[in-house]
Amino acid sequence: MANTWRGYSMGHNPTSGVLSVERRKELYAIASKYDIIIVEDDPYWYLQYPSAVVAEAKSRGLEPAKSSGYPFLDSLTPSFLSVDTEGRVIRLDTFSKTIAPGCRLGWITAQPAIIERLLRITEVTTQQPSGFVQSTVAELIMGEQPAAARSAFAALTSRQKQTFEGWKMDGWVRWLEGLRGVYERRMNRMCTILDEGSIQLKQSTPRSADDADWGVVSKTKLYEFDWPRGGMFIWLKLRLETHPLWQATGGQKVPLLDGESLSTALMFLATKKPYRVLVSPGLIFSATPAIRAERGWAYFRICFAAETEENIDLCSQKLADAIQKFWRIKKVEEVEDLLGDFVPPQDDEVFGNLGTFMGC
């Protein structure tokens, strides 16, 4: 019996990474060798951001990648289906990320034998998604229906016809292109602002009047991230080891200011005035307790899809300002005040509930 591997290959949550074609081929070869079924869960397939490559290079003074000469091919990374020669890929798609999150409607692409088994399982379990949602989405995408429906449609007035014409496939593709463009603009604007705020400058104080005209300016890297190639999130890595209170001895409530306590304090600072921004702590995405303890605290997931385009600049700047402010804290008491009576939960479910209101 075949084993199963399930993974996000486009716009991974929370990292927004996109699996390259080369890596897909390597994974497929391993799956073939050990008889593993690949379940490709791809809700963010249409939300790939080719401009992130160019914009990131421009923002950071890097050389842009060479184009193949075909803009469309440059902008899309193919599915695992493109390398599936043995029928071992089960691909999951959804309308939830492109029409409405509440529609809960999608489709599965796989070899006929697998689809037949899935159909039988569905018949004795969920049966089908919401009929109302199915008819609404079908009307949007398919437009005109079979002969009987077309006859009824012909009898409608011009105004009524405009109401029921639907997107059809061309309209659906235009909608997807426009949707990707909206998210791509938000992503580029947020990443640009976060890039600008990622370094803190400090100037040394002159030791004497003779040195008044001189000073040493130091740069401290506060965080780093990769510009998303797809999805809805920025995976921010905090450089907490550069914080002035890193590993400082605390009080009774917080004996040691380690990575988890500093990360949590920063998260709470960002929720206070004048910042009022929410991030999802990397702790809730840690696959194991060991990962959570070793490095889960070093990350924040930031969602750029949930905020309106008009507010992206302001929210991004507020987050950058909150991080800059946190690195200027030099008293242990201030960090302890931010933490208050907070006790880090040890249960995974509690961690999950902690993050449900943060981001998207």
From TrEMBL:
One MF annotation (Gene Ontology) recorded for this entry: pyridoxal phosphate binding
GO BP annotations listed: alpha-amino acid metabolic process
One Pfam family per UniProt: Aminotran_1_2
UniProt cross-references to SUPFAM superfamilies, sorted A to Z: PLP-dependent transferases
Family matches, as InterPro entries: Aminotransferase_I/II_large (IPR004839), Class-I_PLP-dep_aminotransf (IPR050859), PyrdxlP-dep_Trfase (IPR015424), PyrdxlP-dep_Trfase_major (IPR015421)
Cofactor field: pyridoxal 5'-phosphate
CDD domains: AAT_like (cd00609)
UniProt keyword terms in alphabetical order: Aminotransferase, Pyridoxal phosphate, Transferase
Keyword Transferase set for record: yes
Keyword set includes Transferase: yes
Residue ranges of domain Aminotransferase class I/classII large in the record: 12-146
Similarity-based family: Belongs to the class-I pyridoxal-phosphate-dependent aminotransferase family.
Record-linked PANTHER family: AMINOTRANSFERASE, AROMATIC AMINO ACID AMINOTRANSFERASE, HYPOTHETICAL (EUROFUNG)
Protein name, as recorded: Aromatic amino acid aminotransferase
Source organism (scientific name): Colletotrichum spaethianum
Lineage: Eukaryota, Fungi, Dikarya, Ascomycota, Pezizomycotina
